[in-house]
Amino acid sequence: MGAQKKRAAAAAAAARVSEDPDDLARQPLQAILLADSFTTKFRPITLERPKVLLPLVNVPMINYTLAWLEAAGVAEVFVFCCAHSKQVIDYLENSEWFSQPNFTVKTIESHNIISAGDALRLIYEQNVIHGDFVLISGDTVSNMSLTQALQEHKERKKKDNNAVMTMIIKKSKPSPITRQSRLGTDELFMAIDPNTKQLLYYEDKADHSKGTICLDKMLLAENPSISLHNDKQDCYIDICSPEVLSLFTDNFDYQHLRRHFVKGLLLDDIMGYKIFTHEIHSSYAARIDNYRSYDIVSKDIIQRWTYPYVPDVKFCGNRATKLERRGICFTAFNSEIEQSRSAQVGSFTVIGYGTKIGSNSKISDSVIGEGCTIGSNVLIEGSYIWDNVIIEDGCELRHVIVCDGVIMKAGAVLKPGVVLSFKVVIGERFVVPAYSKVSLLQQPTVHDSDEELEYADNSSGTVEFSSIQGTADQSNGEMTSESSEAHKPKLGTGGVGYIWSICEGGQEEEWRHSVAPIPEDKLTELSEAMDDDQELVTQDRTALSTSGELISDSNASEGDDNEDSKDDSVYFEKEVEATFLRAVEENVKVDHVILEVNSLRLSYNMTSADCAGAVFYSMMKLAIKTPHSSAIGLLTLYPSPFSMVASNAYPIYLSGELQQNTANIITTWQKLLKSYLLEIDEEIEIILKFEEMCLESAKEFSPLFARILHILYDKDILQEDAILRWADEKEGADESDKVFVRQSEKFIQWLREASEEED
Amino acid sequence: MDFQVVVLAGGTSKKLVPLVSKEVPKALLPVANRPVLSYVLEQLELSNIKDLIVVVEGADAALCVGGWISAAYVDRLHVEVATVPEDVGTAGALRAIAHHLTAKDVLVVSGDLVSDVPPGAVTAAHRRHDAVVTAMICSVPVSGLSEAGSSGAKDKTKKPGRYNIIGMDPTKQFLLHIATGAELEKDTRIRKSILRAVGQMDIRADLMDAHMYAFNRSVLQEVLDQKDKFQSLKQDVLPYLVRSQLKSEILINGAPQGQQAKENGNDKVSYRILANASTPSFHELYALGPNGSAPVRRTHKCCVYIASNSKYCVRLNSIQAFMDINRDVIGEANHLSGYNFSAQNNIIHPSAELGSKTTVGPHCMLGEGSQMGDKCSVKRSVIGRHCRIGSNVKVVNSVVMNHVTIGDGCSIQGSVICSNAQLQERVALKDCQVLSLSTSVFLSLSSNEYL
Lengths: 759, 451
Description:
Structural class of chain A: alpha/beta
Structural class of chain B: alpha/beta
Distance between the termini of chain A: 112 Å
Radius of gyration of chain A: 37 Å
Strand content of chain A: 15-25%
Shape of chain B: elongated
Helix content of chain B: 25-40%
Strand content of chain B: 25-35%
Strand order of the largest sheet of chain A: 5-4-1-6-13-8-14
Oligomer: heterodimer
Number of helices of chain B: 11
Largest sheet of chain A: 7 strands, mixed
Helix content of chain A: 40-55%
């Protein structure tokens, strides 16, 4: 406690003094701490223990957050518990946090909450937030001073009531190759007004397929100067005005703080709410979002970037450790370690109380918890080993996380990126493949999407936990029990646990978020991919602009339009068909059908040619649906005589039920069709439509094409001009396009001769 | 000689149509009674650049420009006047004269630039980074009348507002994005790849490309050869070079690889020192392989030189700009005009004659041999040579060219009156252009009409 406590108090006092003195109605600063990240990135560990209680350099994460909040001058913290809420509350009750003098911690518990948005809505209903508050999740490590950010926020708020939120950001350039930050989070694109620091654009979860960022032209019209950033990291520490809570309540579909809330505010230009940013330079702030950030933040803590929240300084809930200087690096030790003389403990390593290390073991860049037993000739590199783990002789661990109570039998090897959840047992000389996750619990069969959460299993989670504990203990006791037998093939002799299969599409992404460093071949692969990417982009762009005008862009937008109109016409066709079928079934008068189709035409903004096409289409569809037995069978069985007959049989030869049906329907509804055939163009449209149908949707008609064409001619639906013009148009077309012209050749011939005779 | 200078003097620009004609091509339009081209030539002369190629569109215009240059600069500058066909565009013009270009770098200046930014500063920035292209960027001019202006002119000034959208790196040395023309009307699309490489990009809508470029000659010629559809430097060549800077298609680092590498080896140290940074630029970092090995990607650098706000930099490319520049050169930016101002802050040629009670206000200019009658008043206007102005004439915010006759009692506001025009008595002009060639005006006109 001591020194650190005093410093915290001093900082808090300083914060208070520097605040606006004439703000008499000043509220004590409040904070909302979400003790649930609403993601599943830490599974399987989080099935058994909430993320905020996972040890980070041997201290549960939530302690870092709470200690920082206290030091930053927050007076009241509402800890919102959801997944494993009982564990969180129990932990807090047994900790010192409930008994701090100037710092109140209250818990809010809920089980039917599935997102941060829901949590904030619930807090709004409870009406406990009275002024500006800090919104933070319980997995954040920081040592920044809030004073300046808070003051900026208040001043902005005074001037502009719409400035509801200040986001803390920090410089951190993501690798252009992996497109993720050091903390393993996706690259983030932000646009910030360099003068006011207003946030204008926010894109995380970047869509890699899109090679460009699109800034609305209005944005540039309003702000002559904008800074686009790819080199900033979102610290997920927000200073919010109370309006934020009511905004969440008003927009009940906001779930995710960034993806919904921030983007929603940025896009919404009616209410005009604004978000600002505050950049921190020298202090530390990071959120543990995935295993990679767990690794990185742990290292930062060991390397003392987060001072005063470091292993050798006592803050709430940890026992200070002794530092030993090893070369230029530090290694934290506890006094009560039994270390063999020949064991080598390298730099940047923290070892907890009561841990025993055997001879010739090498440990470097790792954190080892309390009460662990490490045999001899063990190699531990860049790994996180929690409490009460037993590692027998000759094991190798590289870049792995090993939870409480795990037993590794002699000679077991963990490849990089492995996560062993609570009380797993790895059999002798078993090699766990890279990136596997092993748990005593079976993998839930339903893969929750990213949006969903740990809590899904949570209601039963605690119960399950204890029962599993039971079985695990049991199996620990008697290794030969049946249950462990069952797992034998999976985890070697005496192994207990399930290797989780990697979620769909996960293999690809697993290396991104794992504790292990990214393998070199992956990097090479990616950088090659990046080259291809670039190539595509440049090709695109060079194709586009020959004269500075946006040729390809305009093409693209035309393409979109086309697609839209295509969609539209499909819907339109469907609507017309439905109308027509209803008319047939209910015997609606032709005039009424015409009215209905006309109204459809207006609402879809179609031409009468489209109507003619659609009506004709529905009629032909109806003809197919009306029962007919064998017209096609006949035709296909005896194609040659039939077509011979057909070609000889002009002017009229009706045969086959389909043809009959068609003829009937055309006769019945010819008035409807004719009402759209105002000009020759519409008639041609019908022929084209028919052709299209014969090729695609109603191939039954294709052998009958010429004859139905003739029927249409006889019924005065098509004029000879239309047919001739269609034939002429097709003259120059591809051979494949001419199938039907060929088929109707005789008929066309006949028409031609007839018209010549007339002349 | 490692810098050649090309001045693109244009021809008879369509945008300036009532003002320019075959006899008066754009380059010879008077700004404070001097051809606009002289401003560029003088700036170049100040930077000690004396060998120039002046490219003129159209044979007639070339003849006029050539004649004027040889008369005015006969013993001061060594100028070659090259003629190119009309409407070939700026890129086409350079393509046409490509065989004249031999130096390592080429400075291309637009002939209608009225500026006091030293061209030497642009060339220095270009060399410092060993860039492929360096563009001069200046703030968007405050156009229109700053005071006592007519409302018509003010409406007009609001419309242009934005000329370019320019993206730069935080050090404001490299050009990362440029949008011109029609692109301004669309949403701005910034490529993520370049943003990833550079980390932060400052996007400015309040700057404009001043059309003074330093090009690497071999790159320029290669681009012009390969992209035969490119017409304009500003709209095609520069955006193309900016776009492809991380995926260079040009051979600068490629073909003469050995030679280039050797050069690099020798000069690397000095480049670093010159670039004022021990850290390599993002281009170099980007070019490196994944392990920091030898460069695997070809990149080139596009740089900017940003003229400071105190410098004057406007292009004469519209009638509004013509009036603005005339006003500024005898007003705020009078150091450009090269004249000595009187105590009243105006210039009245000793040979000019003023009638009694005639006042010529500050920021005015009265050319050689002009005569003014009694009780005239001139405010913020330029009056050319040998004009004859009657009595009771008011000239405000206007440009009157040479040999103009203005009758008694005329009132001229915000107008341009071209050479040899005649105004009859009591004509009132407001926001007009009056064409030359002895046009006589009897009527009163207003707002943007021209004869």
